[in-house]
Amino acid sequence: MTEEQRRQIELEVDEGTCEFMHVHNEIVSKVEQVMPDEQQLLDLSEFFKVFGDSTRIKILYVLSQSEMCVCDIATLLQMGQSAISHQLRILKQMRLVNFRREGKTVFYSLADGHIQTILNQGMEHIGE
Fold it and tell me: Which of 4, 78, 96, 118 has the most beta carbons within 10 angstroms of its beta carbon?
């Protein structure tokens, strides 16, 4: 094997490709059996896209600490109420936040403990 061929193989391995083609059928079959369908994977992708916006992350984080109204969130994040309302609408559509009305005020909170867990795990991961 020439030096050039050796470098090409090293480059391919570094890029995450197989050095030679060999399918591990048992592994592939096992994973195929538990692989979610395409729609579930698309829904999961959309779910995680919501976490890709720093304003939404900030809103989720503050709601993990306390139930709040739009005015509270806007003051805390030093943003306009319309910007906060827009992001809350997205979070509601994705079922990440709940709301309740008390008179003329609407209070928001995290939809469930899963959202708190995702935030905590994300913070733990970036802290490593």
Answer: 96
